[in-house]
């Protein structure tokens, strides 16, 4: 009998912890991962094992075909690789459970089954079984390679989320995991097959998680993974991911559309049946008896999206179902199209030939809309192979190649992916929010298709210009773009491209991007490339500006020795920069503030001076705390104090980090009469303070902290134009944000820099305010700086 139960010796608390951790894809750090079992060599049978879960027939067959243990090892075949990977994963996940209470191994089995259904190779299916073992157990990538080969290891590593790294917020963690996945896809795009199968099964079993977690996962699925499946042509995954996310995010709308589709089903099936039979008879009469005609329902999210986009009710949407004709050859596709247009009247403007002009993701089909039996109907005509590619995308594309592996050059078809990865490597990691926004924008459906001079098709977002086209071709083409010919006519770079345009970019060695291009480019790739070029090309100017700022503050005497000293190098490393030049460039550009550099430099000099001195005694620390006590408590009763944990002690908010309610904070005690300073826990100055001089404090959710406003300084780099400061101040005023100070610095031919001191209630209001400013077209860069 199959056993599906936790270890009887485990406590209910341990069971719940393991179930929750497994459902999230991350083991509880408090749990000791099971030791790595010793797996038999690939190609031989595992010891007879009582698998306590139901196994699909295809997997049972693979296990039965393995050689008896101890027999002479034969050449590794696909069945052996798949079966051995399952057995290894089964042992590793033994004792782990999902939030639903099921053994965790049911998830890898389901993922591998989905990969098998779309025709993935044995290495990809094996990676489906093993995709969680590095993250959830003590097995290392090296062990995966030793047992299953380099190919399987690379796929597993590409899917594994980042572990053991601390992130300041969920957005940063999400962005870093997506960066890792896209970089792995650039090396082997099959990584995304495993990731999409993993996400699809998680979406199918989402009901066991808390509602807020369901919402977060479903939103990420709708915004990133479903569009990603679409860009890779995997319609089989795209439709279901969209519907499952729709069910969680819009439950009322989902039920309404589902009910209305079910109500009209019998009428629709009767109408479709009559049309299908009519088409079959006419195709046979035309000598196309090998063509297969069928009706297909449209998925619920697609119907609802069209209702929202066209502002129509359900009864006004005519294409909730469509006809599909599968033909044996391309020639028969066009002959079938002639038959359709002979029977029914075609609707003008609704015919699209994706066979002669395939989509960039490889999709091919003939689309037409005709007046059927008293109402319009959509018809798709394609070959059987085209249908496989439409359903399974890149997996079907490789299925027709030797060995089922990607051929050299296949990833060239996914130019958008290469552009995104190139941006990450250069300067795309600075802002997690920008990176996520770029991914979401870049995964939307491409709506404009233009041609290169050689006749290659390039897909771009609607509204794209020649500059977007240039950067899509290659970053160097964009960096040296000087002009453009559209359909053999010289046109302005800002000219929007139309479907079918032939575009030729004119380049010159001395040409370079202009910040004015940011006013009309439509793709995140182009925007990020223009900004990145500006930062790199003005490095020398930024270094000079940063040097002058520092010299003005510290004086000329000994300045050269300071720049070549170890203290300034340590300050650079504390700012996550490589060396002194990078620190000066960041200072000149506004990446770090002058006050931050000065504070850290003084701290480094003080630490160097006091290196030989003994550490402060407990009595000295106590004296420092005592010195911080005021003669009269300034904040009244502790229950009304903005900060809890100080017991009436005098304190001040650190100007280096300007903490806000809602942010994790810590108190630091200064020796002498300097009192207590409150810092954000992630402030760069906190690690320099000995642990014995730190105080655990937190914001009082019931105190006057919730009514007070706190100063925060923002540094904004903008296109230098008349009225830009006014526009920013008006945007802040509309949201009732008080600006207590505003300073503008301009330089001919360069962006303007605006320093604003705003007064805010909380960290949440800060994030909202920064998002509002960052969304303005003229804003190039935005960061939070210290008050000083």
From TrEMBL:
Residues 104-203 form the HD domain. Its EC number is 2.7.6.5. Residues 10-23 have a biased composition (Low complexity). In eubacteria ppGpp (guanosine 3'-diphosphate 5'-diphosphate) is a mediator of the stringent response that coordinates a variety of cellular activities in response to changes in nutritional abundance. NCBIfam families: spoT_relA. Signal peptide: none annotated. InterPro entries: ACT-like_dom_sf, ACT_dom, Beta-grasp_dom_sf, HD/PDEase_dom, HD_domain, NT_sf, RelA/Spo_fam, RelA/SpoT_AH_RIS. Residues 1-46 are annotated as: Disordered. Pfam families: ACT_4, HD_4, RelA_AH_RIS, RelA_SpoT, TGS. GO terms for molecular function: GTP diphosphokinase activity. Pathway: Purine metabolism. Keywords: Transferase. This is Bifunctional (P)ppGpp synthetase/guanosine-3',5'-bis(Diphosphate) 3'-pyrophosphohydrolase. Belongs to the relA/spoT family. Residues 713-787 form the ACT domain.
